[in-house]
Structure formats: C-alpha cells, structure tokens
Amino acid sequence: MKTIRTTPPRTVDVAAVFPELAPLARTATRLHPRPGTPTPYDSSVGGPLLWPADEPWPHCDVPHEGGGSLLDVVRLEQRARVRRAMTPDDPRAGDYTPEESAAVQQAVQRFDWDHDESELPVPLLPVAQLYARDVHLLRPPGRSEADLLQVLWCPFDHPPDQWMPRTALFWRTAADVTELLTAPPEPHVVESEEYVPVPCVLAPEQVTEYPSLPDLSKELQEQVKDWSRWEAAGARVDSGFAAYPESYYGSDLSVAPGWKFGGYSRWGYIDPSPRPCPACGTEMDPLLTIASTEGDSSQHSWIPYEDEPAATSDQSHVRDLVHRPTAIQIADLHAEQLYSCPRDPGHPHMELMQ
Ligand SMILES: [Zn+2]
Ligand SMILES: [Zn+2]
C-alpha cells in the first residue's frame, strides 16, 4: 500500500499578497522518509540500490581521520530504536535480543581499531534512491531516458574544506539494470552514527516553494517586511508577526523543511552565494536536500496531517519518527544541500551546508 503524506495548505496565498512572487513559484518534492524496509525497486533513503552487478561500486580514496563508530553496531542500534518507536506500549521493545547483543560483541571484538585508518578506499554508503515515477521532476536535462537517481556518500568528514560527507551521484535507466549487485561492499567504520541513514521508505509529495528572503530582490524584501502590505491584502496572518512578517514568510510560506528534491535553498548557516557550475558557469539549482530534521518548532505548519498525532506524542522516540526519521545529522542540525547543473547532469555537482 502506498503511503501518503499531506502537507496542510498554506494559510496565506503569498503570491496573491505579492504578485511579484508568482513567477518565482517553484515545485519541490517533499520526500517524507519514514523507517521501513525498502527494496532496490523502491525509492528510498538509506535503502538498497538498484546497482548493476557488473558495475564497480564507488569508493572514496582520500585519507580520513579514523572512524568513531562500527557500521554493524550503528545498524543494530538503529533497528532497536525504530522498534521502540514503533511499539510505544512496550517499554522494552528497544532492548537488544540475545542475538543482537551477541552480534554487537562480535563486531567489536572482530574489529582492529589500531589499523582502521588502513581501510582505504572507503566504500560509499547509499543515501537516497529516487525513481522518476515517484519524483516527477527527476528527469535530467538531455537524458530523457534516465529515470533513476542514486546518491551515495562517504560517511566521513573531509577537512579542511568539508565538515560533512562527500556525495556521488549516479543517473541511470532502471530498465537497463537486469542483474543486481546483491551484496555491495560496506565500510567497517564510519565517522559517526549520524552519517548512517536509517533505511526509510518515502511518500513523495509536491509542494510549491518561493525563494527564501535573502534570495529576493532588495525591493521585494522590503515589501515582505512591510506589515501594511499584508494587511491591505487581507492576509490571515497572526498579528503577533506585525513587527516582523518576514519571519512568517520564512517559516511558513517560502521554503519547505526536511528532505526534498528540487525547490529553493533555505540559507541560514551560510549567506547566499553564487553557485556557478564548475564546467560551464551556469548557475546551479538545488537538487536534493539531505536534512537533519523535518522541521523545527517554528515550522509546525509543515507537519503532514497524517503525522500530527506522532509529532505531538509525549514520547520522544515516537516524535523522533516524524522529526528525525533518518537519524542523519549534519553539524548542528543543519542540512546538506546538493546542487546540479541545469544544462548537463554530467557536470560536477556541489554540496553546501544549509
Ligand atoms: Zn571520504
Ligand atoms: Zn554545467
């Protein structure tokens, strides 16, 4: 059965209040990852990939500063946590089974911590797999036959320039993959458990976004900050926002929080900056947003109707299923947003912390 997630409609049609915004409307696909058991034939986060048996698995071959967590142990802990959240009435559901306890011990004993830095190159981990049938905007320019995007990453920081995992993108045609690689190589250690996504199924949903405030022209920014414009348009906005209506625009009307495909940048961690394609100079577009959370307390209006009960549960592990379903954490609850060239999907992509 296909899972559905429905973002409540925005309380204000912001393009009616500011007609200059209308041509800037852009569709984004919220992915709504939730823990599950995806197959290679499903769109997923952290799930198995539809990978051809005869294609080499990608690796990262730069030196890393040694890992902090064993992948096998991280996976066992994640499974126990999800079990606990899925069975809130059983406080012991998150305890390890005897088999899991034994597996943890074995993994720890087996691993030679003194030599972990010798593990090079590092096999990449699956982060996301998106089929065009689920994410309709997926088709890359000039490659109309490609209907599958696979995103992998190296689960380590890459100082001094990148304090987050480094990603690799693969576009392919699903029908071309007849024989699957069933047991891809995996790293033994990862930087931290925060770089290992919990396997999730997706419930893609299209929403409309508008540029975040810093991306608007100075003139339009001033208009959005002008409470009288909102009043004149009869917009139903809480008068508590009268002194700073741009906050309401930022939290509720412009950019959706959480994992998404396409749309706009939220900015915040870094200032807006040009993103020219390194190969052709064209300004790059947001492709995939890998988010630490599906929204903070100011973004409650984006919680899908279906998740409202879990989102307000008095049990934190149940709330986590909605707010932090993939358990990914980029720095201090930021997001890693990938950008790609709108002219050629073969041009190098880039990553920014948002
Ligand atoms: Zn790496
Ligand atoms: Zn380019």
Give a short overview.
The chain is 19% helix and 18% strand. The chain is an alpha+beta fold.
Tell me what you see in this structure.
By secondary structure, the protein is α+β, with helices and mostly antiparallel strands. It has one domain. 19% of the residues lie in helices and 18% in strands. The protein has 8 helices and 16 strands. It has helices at residues 14-17, 71-86, 98-110, 218-224, 227-232, 245-254, 308-311, 316-323, and strands at 26-30, 34-35, 44-45, 59-60, 69-70, 122-123, 125-131, 148-154, 166-172, 189-190, 200-201, 205-209, 260-262, 285-291, 335-340, 350-353. Strands 12-1-13-14-15-16 form a 6-stranded antiparallel sheet, with no helix packed on it. Strands 2-11-3-7-8-9 form a 6-stranded antiparallel sheet, with no helix packed on it. A two-stranded antiparallel ribbon has the order 4-6. The longest helix is centred in the first third of the chain and has 16 residues, at 71-86. The model has no long low-confidence stretch (mean pLDDT 93). Residues 277, 279-280, 282, 341, 343-344, 347 line the site of one zinc ion. One zinc ion binds next to loops.
The general outline is globular
Low-confidence stretches: none
Strand order of the largest sheet: 12-1-13-14-15-16
Bound molecules: zinc ion
What composes the largest sheet?
6 strands, antiparallel
SS-based class: alpha+beta
Q: How many domains, as an integer? A: 1
What's the rounded overall pLDDT mean?
93
Number of helices: 8
